[in-house]
Amino acid sequence: MIPRYQTILFSVLLAASAVMGVVLWQLRDRAHQRLLSNQDSAPTQAPQVAQAEQATLLVANDADSSLLTQVQSLPLSQDPGARARAILGKLLDLYAAPGAAHPVPGGANSIAQVFLMPAPNLESPSASPANPSDPTSPQLAVVNLTGSFAAAHPSGLETETLTLLSICGTLHANLPRVAQVRFLVDGQSRPTLAGHADLTRTYLTAAAPSEAARP
Amino acid sequence: MPSTKPMLNGLVAAVAAVGLAGSITVAQQAPPAPAPPPARFVVVLDAAHGGDDPGGKLSGGEAEKSLTLALSVRLRSLLAARGIQVVTTRESDSTLDLDRRAEIANRARAQACLSLHASESGSGIHLFVSSLPPAQPGRVAAWKTAQAASVTRSLALAGTLNSALLHAGISVTLARANLPAVDSMTCPAVAVELAPESAHSSGSSQPTPEPLDDPAYQARVAEALAAALLEWRTEVHQP
């Protein structure tokens, strides 16, 4: 048998909990209304659409292991990093298209980021890198690929090398200051792209097109 | 110097003969020095991948590591039958890192090193030489760029392989690339990548596909590579 005073205490606590729940719900609604009233969701600025520009792509061809120059028109940002990412995205879109001469799944989303920074002196690593304020100083591009792109890339010396060389050549063709390229996958260094092409080294863009020379 | 002792023996015999007879005609009667033994010619075959590293996945579900091992075994037999000493980096499905492969090749002091690969991309045979810039051989070579001193000879070896493969009717692509295992080798080294071939059979304008797992295609490639290495042995032994 439950004592009477315990029944009364339980009823009072239950009623107090219900009242507190109602009060909290009302406070939450008020706070939500206050936030909405402060937020002006009306559009005040038209979205920026970049001007379409010509970009030079070095497109790989598995049949003869060559890189062919192809000019495409696409909207490009003025920011060099975003510009590089858009151009490489277009290049990988071509590879992901049906019937591509160098089929690689993934497309534009495979380029996570492109970072541009002063190029280190490879001859003497202790020397200071190029002056970033100098508009003619060489740059290092760090291309961060997605893990899904690397996982889906066809395996083979030729196909992996062509992908890397076409990226290096395309970067240099559109951003002539880019003299060196390094590759990351999901922000981490990785030994190879898909088991063959070396990702631990710095690629020199000046050598890229000639490295895939035909016999 | 294997040829020093026979030459010294001949010289001693000649001096003894001159001392006895005091005439140059006697010296001419001395037994001729035996011909120097043929120089050692070693080929290293590196079947890429293996063990935990299957390499690429080929048509029919076969792993690249199996095909490279099969090609290595076939080529080793052909070369051994032609009297060429062969060193292989692996004889079974074992894991071997890239540094260990280069160590085996460098210890063998080989005159030719072939790194064997396979891929479903492209067609014919892809020959890759290291993209390191050529350098003069020095007393000490950096591990990751040891191939630089042999790049010129590697390009010559690739040219010999190219000629033999074309002569066998197999299409070839030559290129240069960063090749981590090959870059640490001190021998003339070429990476050979086998891809499906589209051969034109006689009497037909349509190309006949030759898949990677076709034993006849693999045998044709192995024969051409063996012929090329025989030719390379002749070039290496020319003064």
How would you describe what is shown here?
The complex is a heterodimer of chains A (215) and B (239). Chain A is α+β, with helices and mostly antiparallel strands and 215 residues long. Chain A has one domain. In chain A, 37% of the residues lie in helices and 21% in strands. Chain A has five helices and six strands, in the order αββαββααββα. Chain A has a four-stranded mixed β-sheet. A two-stranded antiparallel ribbon of chain A has the order 1-2. In chain A, β1 (52-61) and β2 form a beta hairpin. In chain A, α2 packs antiparallel against α4. Chain A starts with a helix and ends with a helix. The relative contact order of chain A is 0.13. The longest helix of chain B is centred in the last third of the chain and has 23 residues, at 215-237. Chain B contains seven helices and eight strands. Chain B folds into two domains: 11-38, no CATH class; 42-237, Aminopeptidase (3-Layer(aba) Sandwich), CATH 3.40.630. Chain B is α/β, with parallel strands linked by helices. The two termini of chain B are 17 Å apart. Chain B is globular. In chain B, the strands form two sheets. A six-stranded mixed β-sheet of chain B has the order 2-1-3-6-4-5, with helices on both faces. In chain B, α3 crosses α7 (215-237) and α5 crosses α7. The A-B interface holds A 62-65, 154-159, 161, 191-192, 194-198, 200-201, 203, 207, 211-215 and B 49, 53, 55-57, 64, 117-123, 126, 128, 131, 162, 172-180, 191, 193, 195.
The best one-word shape of chain B is: globular
Instruction: Tell me the quaternary state.
Output: heterodimer
Mean pLDDT of chain B: 83
Quickly give the CATH architecture of the largest domain in chain B: 3-Layer(aba) Sandwich
